Each structure stands twice: as structure tokens, then as C-alpha cells.
Automatic annotation (TrEMBL):
Record protein name field: ALKB4 dioxygenase
Gene that specifies this protein: Alkbh4
Organism encoding this protein: Sula dactylatra
Record-level GO BP terms: actomyosin structure organization; demethylation
Cofactor(s) annotated in UniProt: Fe(2+)
PANTHER family the UniProt entry points to: ALPHA-KETOGLUTARATE-DEPENDENT DIOXYGENASE ALKB HOMOLOG 4 (PTHR12463:SF0), OXYGENASE-RELATED (PTHR12463)
Alphabetized UniProt keyword annotations: Dioxygenase, Oxidoreductase
Length: 254
């Protein structure tokens, strides 16, 4: 019932719905359109398709480049991980131009293939917090889609009016609505890069619904290590080892 506006950082109520004319700040989203060119996109997808796509949940297929993880037992080892793929070296280099990605060192890459014929989707979820760090970075390829944000919190959200009609702002006071009643759509154009961090990473779940997969879509997600595996953390040495492997850019899907 709200749509994220990259220009203002606001979630704005959709027209003709109950929250039309209302908005609230939606921090923790960075969106860059045309992050790569059409030629770069074609080359990346062609290289991906040379490797097998393994069946995944909810009608998706995947290619994983990352360490072997047991999230339930919180165990991690390099396993058969040989690094991120060579074609990602330029993508990672280009990320350095993004202000929110200073010091971002990806240790895992997951390619997900969505097709409408397979009913591809992903349910609302948080990415793991024990292993993965603050910033989740995704490159959206081949077709546009919508990232749907929802919140299970018992908190309320304060909305403020954005009506432009004369005098109406002086009548309306901010209103509180339960977080659970609010959903925010982040529109992802083809070849755009989106970063979720802060509230958008830790307070809001993200999902892709079937209705928003109109054509083949590939999502390339990069994740960084949490503080526990970074400098000064309990598992700093293991983190260093994994980063060294990841950033060799010699990897094959595991």
C-alpha cells in the first residue's frame, strides 16, 4: 500500500488506497539505475548459463559461490568454495563508486533465476544475521520486478500528510498505524543495483511475489561478513581466509 521513492527516501501511500496522500521515511535503501550496460548484462548472463542452474525453492534455480554453512548449528567452513566468478570482478570494482558501499568486501555470491512459468517467488524473510553483515547488495538482470517489504513488529509507524490541496495540511495531524498494516514496494528496474542496510535490512522483511515476475529475471546477490568474522571479531581468521578465497575471482558454483 506504499511505494518507495528513491529521490526522497520516502514511502508514499499509493493512489486510490487508504493511505493515499500519506508518507513516512523509509531509510536503508540505496538504488542505482543502469548500474551496468546492456552489453555487460548480456555477457554476464551468457557466462552464467554456461554453468548448471540447480533447482531451488519456490520455483527458482540457483548458482551459489560461497562457503559451506550450517545456519542452525552456526558452523562454517570453506568446503569446496573456490571464490566468486571471474565475471564479478568488474561488478565488485564498480560498486566502489557507490557511497553506501565503502569497504564492502563480498564473501558470497548467489545467482537466482526466476521464471513466470515456474511460479518463481521468494517469501518474506530476513537474511541471516549471524554470518552476513549489514549490507545486502543485489543486481537485477533481464527484467524489472518489485521488492516487497513487510514488517512483523508490534511498533507503529507515524505517517505525515503529503496532500497538496490548499489548507489541508493545516487540518491533518500525523497519524499512527500498526507496522503490520504497512507494505512497501521498491520498484527495481532492469540492470539496477539495490542495497538494503539499517532498518530495511534488520526491521523489514523482503520478498518477491509471483505476480511481479513477468519474464525471466536473474538476481545476483552479494553478501559481506558480519562483525563476528571481520577485523576484531571472534572468527576473524576464518573470515580472512574466506575473503581471500572469495576475492581471487576464480570460482565455480559450489
Amino acid at each position: 500500500n506504499f511505494t518507495y521513492c528513491p529521490a526522497t527516501g520516502l514511502a508514499k501511500g499509493n493512489e486510490h488506497l487508504e493511505f493515499a496522500g500519506w508518507a513516512f521515511p523509509f531509510p536503508g535503501v540505496f538504488l542505482m539505475e543502469e548500474f551496468i550496460s546492456e552489453d555487460e548484462e548480456s555477457e554476464i548472463v551468457e557466462l552464467m548459463d554456461r554453468d548448471d542452474w540447480k533447482p531451488s525453492q519456490s520455483g527458482r534455480k540457483k548458482q551459489d559461490y560461497g562457503p559451506k554453512v550450517n545456519f542452525k548449528k552456526q558452523r562454517l567452513k570453506a568446503g569446496s568454495f573456490t571464490g566468486l566468478p571471474s565475471f564479478s570482478k568488474n561488478i565488485v570494482a564498480q560498486m566502489k563508486a557507490c557511497s553506501v558501499l565503502g569497504g564492502f568486501l563480498p564473501v558470497e555470491q548467489c545467482n537466482l533465476d526466476y521464471m513466470p512459468e515456474r511460479g518463481s517467488a521468494i517469501d518474506p524473510h530476513f537474511d541471516d544475521w549471524w554470518l552476513w553483515g549489514e549490507r545486502l547488495v543485489s543486481l537485477n538482470l533481464l527484467s524489472k520486478t518489485v521488492l516487497s517489504m513487510s514488517c512483523d513488529s508490534e511498533d507503529s509507524i507515524q505517517l505525515f500528510p503529503t496532500f497538496s490541496e490548499e489548507g489541508i495540511n493545516s487540518i491533518l495531524s500525523p497519524r499512527l498505524v500498526p507496522s503490520k498494516e504497512v507494505t512497501v514496494a521498491i520498484h527495481l528496474p532492469r540492470r539496477s543495483l539495490v542495497v538494503l542496510y539499517g532498518d530495511a535490512r534488520y526491521k523489514w522483511k523482503h520478498a518477491i511475489y509471483r505476480k511481479h515476475i513477468e519474464h525471466r529475471r536473474i538476481c545476483v546477490t552479494f553478501r559481506e561478513l558480519s562483525a563476528e568474522f571481520s577485523a576484531g571479531g571472534r572468527h576473524e581468521e576464518l573470515g580472512k581466509e574466506l575473503l581471500e578465497i572469495a576475492l581471487s575471482f576464480q570460482g565455480r558454483p559450489v
